[in-house]
Specification:
The complex is a heterodimer of chains A (about 250) and B (about 210). Chain A is built from six helices and seven strands. With about 250 residues, chain A is an alpha/beta fold. Chain A has one domain: Beta Polymerase, domain 2. In chain A, strands 1-2-5-4-3 form a five-stranded mixed sheet. A two-stranded parallel sheet of chain A has the order 6-7. By secondary structure, chain B is α/β, with parallel strands linked by helices. Chain B has one domain: Rossmann fold. The chains are: A alpha/beta (about 250), B alpha/beta (about 210). At the A-B interface, helix 4 of A face helix 3 and helix 6 of B.
């Protein structure tokens, strides 16, 4: 009589990578919530020096605010920089937590596109910025980092929807929050009036013209296609029928 | 030999509801309205914090079941009253319009809270300035969000309205017929008028249409 197979038993060869946590500034210390972080200044993320050594002139000015490091990158080198930060063992920024943009009221100050990177291995946070001058000649276009982090897909779509920034190389750059036929422009730009450009009746007319059943196809929402891309241990768990949260 | 007696033509009562409100009609009105008013099945359309208050109204403390509303009908086909609880962005406008059109007559609409009634503080590019620009509304419940007492008061007002309905009013059950080209059911000028900014928001800029 054989014991019933327990799918939830921890597997012996889970293959989790072993690494030592290196907290910046306090090697070997257990992670603590930082206190008394200054508004300006403080220790800079060591990745900035590594970036300067690797890419030289493509790395612009860097600053620290509230303990977070911001570094400006040349637009042409952005994809290369991101790929290196993600893959290099000394950096391993595996997690792209946000892609967004900033436009200032100032007519001269350029629009900034912002990437928030996080290295789980080294407990580091890094903010990359690319400046796009508002001189009318520069196209609002930056390379897409979708090839580096797949999670950039919807983040870049949102940034395109709200700011009109084109992400070169994105597989499916459509609006994501506003409906796809939205004609009024890009709502978070400073020249966009808060109530929109059209009259309320025209806005309502255009909104009602949309077909409420033509939103997302089931294929688009399905994650079945992504199964092969999942890590081995996750594939094993899901393939064995294990449910999480039980 | 059947169970149903054949009607005697001589004793048939002629009935013309448009000119005649006899005793029988009045009593039938009362009976039908009484039944309808006390078994309103809500179709909850909750999009924001008003929906939390709506859930509180339906839960045991306030107990909407006392009004015959214990069955939340999450299907428009089996519901009587659409309760729009929360702001409606333009992207949801065709959805709420479709839900309203899928409901069977008789049907009523309660607009719950400031946002559903007027856009509230969301006087922005993305939010419909009052769902009465999309579908006809019977009762507006003010508040941000209204307390359950407020919603219950609105429901009791709707019950009162239903009790006052008369079969002789043939326009009562006219289905909303939106303009086929623009899909609007009221003139565009009235929508613009209803959506006029108010309060502090009049000082904000707006480019020409």
């Amino acid at each position: 009589m054989s014991a019933p197979q327990d799918h939830r038993a921890p597997s012996q060869d889970h293959g989790a990578p072993t690494f030592t946590v290196v907290h910046p500034g306090q090697p070997g210390d257990s992670p603590v919530t930082p206190r008394g972080v200054p508004h300006k200044g403080g220790p800079m993320n060591p990745s900035v020096d590594a970036l300067r050594a690797k890419f030289g002139a493509a790395i612009g000015r860097a600053s620290v605010g509230w303990g977070e490091t911001t570094v400006f990158i040349d637009r042409a080198k952005l994809l290369e920089v991101c790929a290196w930060l993600q893959s290099d063992a000394s950096q391993s920024y595996e997690y792209l937590s946000d892609v967004t943009a900033v436009e200032y009221r100032d007519h001269v100050r350029p629009i900034e596109v912002v990437w928030h990177l996080r290295s789980l291995k080294y407990r580091r946070f890094l903010r990359l910025k690319v400046e796009l001058p508002k001189d009318g000649k520069t196209a609002l276009e930056v390379p897409s980092v979708w090839s580096v982090w797949k999670g950039a897909d919807w983040l870049e779509r949102e940034c395109y929807d709200m700011f009109g920034i084109k992400f070169d190389g994105h597989p499916d750059l459509r609006r994501i929050l506003m409906w796809e036929q939205y004609k009024e422009g890009f709502p978070l730009r400073k020249d966009f009036p808060m109530r929109g450009r059209f009259s309320r009746s025209e806005q309502l007319k255009q909104a009602l013209a949309a077909n409420p059943e033509a939103r997302y196809s089931m294929e688009e929402l399905s994650i079945a296609d992504a199964f092969e891309d999942l890590p081995t241990d996750m594939r094993k768990r899901l393939g064995g029928g294990e449910k999480t949260g039980e | 030999m059947g169970l149903i007696a054949k009607p005697d033509p001589a004793s048939a009562v002629s009935y013309n509801p448009q000119t005649q409100e006899g005793w029988v009609t009045t009593r039938l009105d009362f009976l039908v309205n009484w039944g309808r008013a006390n078994s309103l099945w809500p179709m909850p359309f909750g999009t924001a914090c008003c929906a939390i208050e709506f859930m509180a109204s339906a839960a045991s403390h306030f107990d909407l079941a006392r009004f015959g509303m214990e069955r939340m009908s999450f299907s428009p086909r089996q519901s009587d009253v659409l309760i729009c609880a929360g702001r409606v962005p333009f992207k949801l406008a065709p959805v709420i319009r479709r839900i309203y059109q899928q409901m069977h007559q008789p049907k009523w609409v309660i607009s719950m809270g400031a946002c559903a009634s007027s856009g509230g503080m969301f006087d922005s590019y993305a939010v419909v300035q009052g769902i009465d620009t999309i579908i006809p509304v019977d009762v507006y419940v003010p508040g941000c969000p209204p307390r359950p007492e407020g919603l219950i008061y609105g429901i009791m007002m709707l019950q009162k309205k239903i009790m006052e309905e008369r079969m002789s009013n043939t326009a009562l059950r006219d289905e909303m017929m939106p303009d086929p080209t623009s899909q609007l059911y009221i003139p565009p000028s009235r929508i613009d008028e209803l959506s006029e900014p108010f309060g502090n928001s009049v000082h904000q800029t707006r480019s020409a249409p």
